[in-house]
Every structure is written in C-alpha cells, then in structure tokens.
Amino acid sequence: CNKLDINIDPNNPLVEKANAESLIPSGVVSTAGRVGGDLSIVGGLWAQYWTQNNSSSQYISVDTYDVPNSSAFVNGPYQELYSGALADYQLAIEKAVAAKDWRYNLMATVMRAYTYQVLVDLFDKVPYTEALKVGTFLQPKFDDGYTIYKSLIQEIDAALAKDFMNTPHLATDTRIDLVFGDNGNASFEDQMENWERFANTLKLKMYLRMAYVKPAEAEAGITAMYDGDTEFLNINAGVSAYQNVPNKSNPLFEYNFRRLNTTDNLKASVTLVSWLEQNADPRAQVYFGADSPVPAINQGDFWNQSNHPEYFDAVVPVIAPTAPVWFITKAESCFMQAEFLERYYGGDNAESKYNDGVTAAFTNLGLASPTDLLAGPYKYPKNANLETKIEKIIVQKWASLFGSHALEAFFEQNRTGYPKISPVYSTEPGYQPGTLVYASRGVTGEGNFPRRLVYPDYEKSRNTNTPAEVPIYTKVWWGK
Amino acid sequence: QNKKISGQVTDSDGGGPLPGVSVKVRGKQQGTVTGPDGKYILEAAEGVILEFAYVGYVGQTRTVGNDPIINVVLSGENKSLTEVVVTAFGINRASRTNGYSVAQVGGEEINRASPLNLMAGLQGKVAGVDISATSGSPGGSSKTVIRGFSSIAGSNQPLYVIDGVPVNNSRPGDASPVNSLGDLKESYDFGNAANDINPGDIETISILKGAAASSLYGSRASNGVILITTKKGKAGAFKVDVSSAAAFSQVTNVPKLQDKYGQGFAYESWVAENGSWGARFDGKTRDWGSEVDGERLSQTFVAAKNSFKDAFDTSQEYNNTISFSGGTDQSTFRLSYGNVNSDGILPGSSDVYKRNTISLNGSTKFKDLSITAGLNYLGKNTRTVQTGQANSGVGSSFYEDILQIPVNFEISKFKDYKNKYFDVDGFYSPFTQNPYYSIFENGATFKSDRFYGNIDLKIKPLEWLTLQFQQGVDVSNIVDKIWNAKNSPTPGSWAGGGNDEQIVRQASVGNVVDGSEKYFEFDSKLNALFDHKFSDRFDVTGLVGLNFNDRGSRVLYTGIEDLLIPGLFQIDNSGNAPTSSQTSKERRLFGAYASATLGYDSFAYLTLNARNDWSSTLPSAQRSYFYPGANLSLILSRLIDMSSAKVSLLKLRVAYGKTGSDTDPYNVLNILNKTNISLGGVAYTSFPFGGVGGYSISNTLKNNKLRPEISTETEFGTEIKLFDNRLGLDISYYNRVTNDQILPIVASPSTGVNFRVVNFGKVRNRGIEISLTGVPIRTDDMTWNIGYTFTRNRNVVLELPDGLSKVVLNAAYDAQFVAKVGQPLGVFEAPVPLYDPEGHIVVSSNGFPASAPDLGTYGSSQRDFVMGFTNTFTYKDFMLGFTLDFKKGGLFYSGTADLLNFVGNAANTVFNDRRTFIVPNSVVRVVDGEGKTTYVENTNPITENNIYSYYYTNSGRAVSYKNMIVDRTYLKLRDLTLGYSLPKKVARRIGTDRAMITLYGRNLLTWLPKQNITIDPEVSNFGNDLSSEFGEFRTGPSTRNFGVSLSLTF
Lengths: 480, 1050
What we know:
The structure holds 2 protein chains of 2 kinds. Chain A is mostly helical. Chain A has 17 helices and 6 strands.
C-alpha cells in the first residue's frame, strides 16, 4: 500500500549515499577530538605536565591512578574512536576501493592505522580482525597488539603501493583534506607526498615501539625503509583548522576550558616546571604563560594548600582555542629519526636530527632557534653510551609534546622509561628536576605507575570476548 | 397484554429530575429514555422487569405490577458501583458484560481539589495505575503507568482518547535527536500534552488497563487507555455552571541540611568556598561573604534556620471555568471557557503557567442520522527555569547553585542579586553563581496553540445496525525560547579572582535558542455497530470497523552561543554562526477490527475481538500483524439467588488478549548523520568544520527485519457487591508478557556502532489489583463512603540479547539504572567497596576504600505495593473528603543528594563529627615477592582534613553512592476537602440551582522514610517514562497547595 511507504528518513541521507569526501574529514576530526582532547588530559597528567588543581576535583581519579572501567576517560575515547573515527575510515576505504580512488584510500588507511595504533597502545589488546563488521561479528574477538601492528603496517604498505598520484584533486577536493590540504591551497603533489611521508613516519613510530620487545623486527623494518630512501615527515601532520568558536575549537580547550564550570582544574606540575626552570627553557612562558619559576603544584598533591599556600599561585596550562592537534610533528619525526640512526646506524647523522628536532620544537611554538641551549644543557651527548643518548632524545621529545599531543609523551615514557622515575617525591631534597614522581595520593601503591587503561565497561558488558581486567599498572606488550 | 407505564426518574441528591435515563424492558428491544423533566412513558406487560440505567448512577430494576406509575430515585453516590462504563470507542456498556477490569472515575471526583491537570485528580483513586507529578512547578509533566513498565526503551505512557478519538500526548523536546539543540532532556519541562486538557470539561474517565480492554485501539494502546468523556449538553433547561478556585502553594520536603559546620574547606574557613566543610559553628559574630570596597558583611556564625524553605516564594494559582449548556430532544450543546493562571514558587515571573481553553460541542438528530461534534482550543503560555546541570560557560541553573550555598548563609538574602555583595562581581564564590541571577536573567518561555476535536456521524439504516464515521483532529503549534544572559566578573573583583583562593569564575557567554514544534494527528474510523437479539436468551452486540491514523511532527530549533550585545536574545546577536537542528517525522497506520459479545440470558457474556494493523514504521514484509482476544463474564448472582447472603452481584471474569505494537519511524533503513563529534562531557566538535561538511555513519544500526512487538495478557477477576451495594470488592490478577520488544540496544563500540535496533527479549508484569468500596454509614443526613485500592506489580526481565549482561536505561556519574535478566526492569548499579575473602573492606594506599572492579547492585526501583485510600463524609450539606496515596518500596537516585554531599551541606556529612577515622574492619592488600596476595589490617586513617573526600564520588567512590541511592517510599495526603452546599432553597433564593463552596488542600502532608533526607521521590527531571524512574538530577522540590473553590449552577 503506497500510503504506508513513508518510512524513509527525511532528515538524514541513507547510508548508501555515503562518500569518502564527507567521511574522511569526519573521521580525522574525530581522531583529533579524542587523541588531542580528553586523552591528552590523561596523557598530560601521567606525563606530569600538569596536575589536578588544589581546590577543585575534576581529574582526581586520573591523578590518583584510580580509573575504573566505567570512567568516562576509558569508555568515552574508546567508543568515539571505534564507532566514530574507525567506522568512518572503514566505510571511506570501501567506497574508495570500489571507486579505485587510491588517494582517499591512502588517507583513510593511514588515519585508520594511526587511530588503531593509539587504541593498541592504550589498551594492549583490542578487537581488530573481527571489528567494524557489525553484520558478521557482534562480539568481536580481541587481537594482541603485535598482530594488529603487523597488519596495520601491511595495510599501509598496500595503500602506498597503489597509484594514488594518478588522478589529481580539484581544489574543492583538496579542501576536505584537513591534514595537508591547507584549506584547498595545497598543490595535489605536495598534499599526496605529505600523506606518503605521514604513512612512512607512522610505520617508523610503530617499529620503534617494538625496539625493546621485537628488536630484530624493528631493525629490519626500519632499515628496509631507510635503506630504500624513504622520506619521513618534515612538516607537522595534524588538524589546524580550529577556531575560537563554540564546538569548533581545539578539543582540549573545548573540553577543559569552554565546557567546564571552572577553568582551572589543570595546574602546572612541578615535574615539568622544575625541568624547564633548571634549563631556563623559554617554553615555560609559552606553556604556562608565566616566567620561570612557574608557580606549580607537586604532582597529585591537590588539597594540600594548608601545607603549601603557594599552590594558590599555581598557573593553568595555556591551551589556545585555535591550537592545532598534531598527529605527528616535524620535531617528533626528527627525534624518531635520531633514535633509529643511533640504534641501527651507529649514530650517523643522529645529532643533526636531534638538533633539528629541538629546533623544530621551539620554532613550532613561535620561539627562536635555541642555539644557546643546544650548546648548553641540551647539547647532544655524542660520545655517551646509547641509553644516555636515547634518554636525551626522549626527554626532549617529552618536553615537546606538551598540550594536545601529551598522550604520546605518556606512551614514550612507557616504552623507554624516560623521563626517569624519581626515587623521591618532588618536595624531597634529592629530587632531580624533570623526573617523574609517584602521585602523592596514588591508589595503586608506591611505584605502580599507570601503564595502560583498563578494558572499557562499554566493551566488557557487551562483549564476552573481552579479556579479564588487569591492573592499570600492567605494561602493554611493547612496554619496558 | 401491554399496558402503559409512566413515571419520573429523579436524583437522590436534591430530588431534581434526571433527563436521558435509559429505561429498558429486560430481555427485549423495547425501551425509551426520560425527557427533560425526567419523565418517561412506555408500554410493558405485567411481570416484566424494567431496567433504569444512567451514566454515573447506580442502575435499578423494577417489576411491572398493578401500578401504572413507577417513579424511581437514582443515586450516584458511589461511582465505583456504577454499572454502566465507557469502553472502547466510547461505547457505553453495562459493566457486567465486561470480562476485564475497567475503572471509571467521575468528573466531580477528579475535580474535588481543583487540580490543574486531570491525572493529578486521579492519584490514589484507581488500582493498577501509578500516577506521579514529576515536578512541583506549575504545568510540569505527570507520569502515568498502568500495570507496570513493560517497554524497555519505547513509551510506557497510556493512550489518551477524548470522545473516541486519540490525542497527542507528546513532551516538547522529545521529538529532537539526542544531544541536538532541540533535545531539552532533563533541562526544561514544558509539560506533556495530555496534562493541558481542562479537567473541568471532563464528565468521566475510564481506564482500560489490560490488553483485553484496550486492544481494539490498536498499537498505541498496549500500555492501556485513558478514555476521557467530556461533558455534553443535556436535553432540558439551559444551564450555566461556574467554578472558580484560588490556591496558594509552598515548597514541601526540602533537603535536611547539617547545622554544625560552616563555610570552608578541610576544617578551615575559606570564604570563597561553595559549601560547608569549614569550621564548627561557635555562635560568634564573624564576617561573611565577599569583600567589596574593603568591607564585608557580618553575621553570627551559626546555621541559618529554614534557609532552604525561605528561598522560595508562596505561589498563586487561579482556576476558573464557566460553561453554558442545554438542549432539546433533538439537539444539545455545551460551550465552556476555562482559564488557569498560576505563578509558581520561584520569585518573580520565572515559573508561570497560563492556560485558556475553549470547548464547544453539540449534537443533533435528524431522523436516523445523528451528528455530534466537538471543537476545542487550548492556548498555553508558560515560563520555566532550567533544572539539572547548567550549561557551563554559557549560563547557570538555580537548582544547582542553591544547593551549594553554605549552611550558615541565608539563601533568601541573595534574592537581592544586584546588591554589590551578591552581584556578578561580588557573589561570594567563584565556583558557582547567585542562584537568583539565573531566575531573573535566564529563562525559557513556551507558547502553544492547539486545536483538537472530532466529528461523529451515526446513521441507523436497520433496527439492529448503526453505521458510524468518526474523524478526529489534533494539531498543535508551539514556539519556545530559551536564553541565558551574558555575564563575566570584572577582573580583580571578588568573583574575578580577588577572593582568598584567587579563583576566577568562568564567564557565562550567554545564548539563545528558538524552537518551533508542530504536531499533527488525524484519525478516521468507520464502524458498523450491531445489536441483535436472536431469542429470549441469546443476544449479540458488536462492531466491525476500519481505522486510518496519520500523525507526526515537524521540529526546528536554532540557537547561538555567545551574545554580542548583552540582554538582547536574538539569533543575529552574536559573532558566531547559528546552529540548527531539524526533524520531521510521520507515521501512518491502517487498522481493521471486529468485536462481538454474545450474551446468554443476562448471565454469561463472551466477547471475541481481533484487530489487524498495517504500520508504515515496520519493514513492508512485516508490516501487517494480527492480534486476537477473548473474554468471558459470568454473573453467578443471576444464576443462583444470593439475596439471602446479601449478595447483590457476584461476577467472575476471565480474559486473554494480545496487543501488537509497531516502532518509531525510520528504524528500518541505515542512515548517515551530520557529523557531531563527542569530546566527552558536554563538549563537541560539530560540522561544518574548517569550511568542510561531514557526514558519519549513524552510531545506531537500523534493522530491516523488524517484527512487531506483541504483548500477551491473561487476566482473571471477580466483582462482588454485598449489603445492598454498600460493600463492593473488585479483584484482578494479570500476567502480561511483552515479547519481541523493539529498541536500540547497546553494542560493543568495536562493532562500529554503539546501538543496534533489534527485536528482543521478554518483560513480564504480573500483578494484583484490589479495589474495595464501602458505605459504612448511610442515613438520611449522613453518609460515609470509602474507597481503597491496592496494587502490587511484579516485573521481571526474562531475556536480554546474547552478549549483553545489561541494558543501561539511565545513568549519572557511576550510578546506572539497568535492565538485567531475572531482575525487575530498572536495577540500580553503582560502585561498591572491594572486600577481601573474609569480608573486610579493602582500602587503597591512600586509606580510602577501594572500589570493586565491577559495579554492585543496590536494588530496583520497583515498588513493593501501592495503596490508595479515599474517604468522603457527607453530613447534611457538608462534605469532608480526603485521599491518601501510599507507595512503598523501591529506590531512586538523587542528584540533589550528590551535590549536597559534595559540598558538605547534607545532614549525613557530620558522621563521626568529621573526625579522623580508620575505615572500620578494613584491610590493605599486600603482594609479596612471589606474587602471593595477603591482607593485613589497615592502619592508614582518613584524616580530618580529608574527610570531605569520603563523600566525593572520586576518592569516596566505593562508599558515597549509598548516600544518593535511597528508598523511594512515600505516603501523601493527596487531597483534603471540606465542602458546603447551600441548601436548595437558599440556593434558589440567590438565583442558583446549586451552590457549593469548598476548602481544599493538595499534597498537604508527605511522609518520607528516615533514609531519605533530600527530596520528594516523586519529582524527576528525566522525563515521564521509564528512565525517570531512575530519580532526579537537581530539580525543584514538590509543593503543597491550599485553596478555596466556589461552584455555582444557574
């Protein structure tokens, strides 16, 4: 009966009308929204850039390592990254492959791999082979992180092997590329070349994650790339179109500043501040809007104002509403290159990559090249042993990942152990600036730093394949 | 040999003539109705029995003897004994023929305490029906649930039918997608549409509870039907009725606050703190509040008395109805005008409910044709404030701000919100805003124009056949507007960082949202009604019919955030681009149905009915569904003469029926949504972004194999009337299983969706309903009527889909309201402490109890039982009545308690005098070098200056939820009325037929269990369906009303 055929939603398009042009930007902003938003708050608390303010309470559970499986910091990102970002990339890839559009295939494949890599690094095991196939698997099995990594690298290789330069974009198409499209102004060649570099640098990142646990495979993967003259990122990859407009601004700003009733839940942590001060690093002013010594709170020592009246002077980290969310920065790319040159090529050229990294980290903030610092405290210890050099590189990387990129600093500390763990709290006389301290109100027991997130309740209560919960201080598969 | 019988039927109340009374010869087609003077004439043989029946009155029978004059006095004193009830399609049926339970309540009973909405007038009066007012504010929603919740995600609200035609009962905001601009969710309650019907126009309400009674109404009736019959003009004299009521109300059941500790934190008097974790009261004079121009106010350091109650005003409410009615044998009419003007308990005009209703109906007859029509206009103009969580950084909310004021402050002082100590700059705390600022500067208005009505044509081509056409229309046009003012503290002012904690209050950038909602519903029915007698003993009545229903909504909301010019609430007034959300929905349904009742010798009645629906919302292959039913009524008292046992009626009923139900529109085909990325909390990134548009795969997977939901219900019951109808008992037992429910259930996010629409599972409701009526005293001068109802419903979820251990229905922080197999629908789960194998509480290294990895069960929201008790005493011209409503058992979550615990205002936060303590019976976990776990006694105390975090949901996660998930029991004195009717003679002298003055109170007293020190569990800002059973999140208190009403008939 025709009168009853009125059940096509007039408000939304049918899924059959989907195209890569509308899905890819949705996915990219979704990944940026979580990785550079609430996860960067967690990352920054655990990498000890900032800590919970003494007179408010928003992030107490994170800053005491008391993050249960029902926490919004666990369920929220997990849900958005899977059903938001990954679902869109997946459909975009299907559409691109069907249309033999290898440009969009590469973009969506790289972003999908980047998003999966974050999930693996956070949760250790996640659904992969059976994920995103709701028609077939309602309870996807979990795959181990190593297997997922290998598959992601293969998928990137497959996408790179396609002829993605074949059909140039129109300017309107270029515009939808929120990572390298430069609002439609990028040339097609530059744009796709940058995606290729992004793909390679992401592979590099994943191989480096394996450096301690699968050393042979990491080395083989990286040397194959380097020996094949593979190009790595020499610009920042990320989303920079944020505006100071409600629902369009940097996700960390939107979440923590625009939409909370008090905007000073996050305060400078003594851990980072003491290191910046020790080195007279001008980034203190950029990160915290205050001259060194930046007034700060010892990590996790909120509500102790009776003993520390100076906590009232502690400053809030500066996160601009227009701050970009970087997926991989140029500095990070340089530090990764320095690391592998040190590990697999006897340090050939490592110092220059290190210097490029530190310089890029400064110039990215609008600061002058730190020539004095590179001659002083940041000078590359060329003649030291490997671990000392790795520490130097990773500590500099840590100092560069402030803001919406903070999660990566947490991962890299888990991987390398740098910055080092301090044997004493930051109020004690022997404290070395910049070393991580066990949060003063941690609930996991002294020394048990968080190393992962527990499996989300959203998955656990809906999927019987979810592995048994392990404590938050259990390292992930590549952890040191 | 027939002879002419005549007589007059009069009203036992005042002796006036009763026009329109049906007079029938038992077992024959013969009959008539009384005229305007109450008189009748008919021909009947000696020895036959005449039956006198009239809606709202107890029927009587007389045997024709020698006397050709038979006068009858009918009394309407006890409505629950009424023998004629309105059933499906507005057909008046002798209740004895019904094999199911139908409750009927008269308009007078409903309007006794002049309620503003009809459901408030039914509270406590009908077994099996659970009615709550979800808000103390005028015009707020009411929640009506018949025989328990059976739908997990769909509607559990009954269908409202006025004069045979279904009407809209939507709640504004519900038609918009979740988290869109038009999703008002828990923040604004503009009432539900059925609540706006003027109770003064109601003649009777019949409540069809079970499937057997309601199934002819089709899919929407699966939760029961509220059948409203409006007042009509009667043949006879022209009548004018005037009723006028004025009432005042006050808040009741305010939170119980502690009175030992003042403003501050960790035992210290921090003067910018929002809460009372400070020093112990010492009665000395101290400065308080902010420092402005170098000065501070001072007061004695003690707990303020009645501060919370005094924060509110006394509200006023005026409720007037005037009606004109009359008619001739051929035609009748009634015209009424109703006006409600109510200003709620918040100061100023921030909560207002104004309603104008005009109702016109009439009927006329021409030969075999009769036409009835009703047309109603309903104009509503309301204003309300936000409940729940404020839109941080945009505006603020009264109920969130008021709860945080330290207990030593008199809240009402802040009413002077422009005073330099209380204004935007001078407000004492940078963590909240002056609650009264949001009342006077922020707000929400709602205007609706609604027309509903029906046309009913009947033609009687044959003696046994009537053809009926019914057309109903209900259209509403709504505009609403929500705004928050822009403000920010001046840098350096108290709230701008000049306080002792140097905190700068978040600026409110302000916003404005303009909404428009249109609803439409068209309902057409074509019926053939038949009534045929085959022999002296067998008769059959019934109908066959067709129904077409078309309804839907168009909703458009547009808003901006961050106002350019403060004080102007217009979409253009911003540097930001406006955002919009637009939703259109439409659904259609064809139905064909038939019903027949076979009567045997006025003793046994068997009804068979069936309906088939074709719904637009189901996949075309599954859109047709059929559901039959049958019921049987046996009147044993006709078979066996029980008059010696004083039994006037003994009836047994049994019924079996199914109801089918479709789903919401657009659940079949998969869609894309405009991209709106959740960043956590209330933060989003929305597209277009960076000049680029975005669509994402919908997070809800639709389903093209949906089947209709089917409920199956079995019902048994009995009715007994004893002692000349002075004692009546009606008992029903029912068992309803709802199968194949259609709802979006959660999916593991790794599948790529968060929800998928499925048919699944079973929910069973079993229950017993008892209603007892009695007339302990009946003399010429005095009567005492009692009515008692008892309901016990047992609900259980029988199945959930594979892999799902629970379905979350609602949540706040870590408290969840879930469906679980084997449990009632709506179980509270929240963090619980971790215990060692010996049952000791395990504490973390910081001395606070660790929480178990999974949430624990606290109990369900299901009530043990519900009881109502109504009493009416009349003595000469005086009437005294009251209704008690008792709901026992179940739990609810209170977001008010959560905040009061957080800020140290709640009475329970003085536990242990806030001194250092070690969690009793606690242990710490020790893992040795070999990984072996042991537990040793805990010696790590929670120190004095850490006590507050014991009540926080983060540090005190394991133990704090018990303060918020509490017993929802209450006992209320729903109404208390004292009426005086002027004696007829006196009334006549002042030119009236009837004059009555009534003093009334509504919800005068509420008793709550000791454990609930916070809020009336009836209130909720989670809508008016299952999710509202979860509880409340920072909403207003309930109110008690006192009033006086005058009703006159000319």
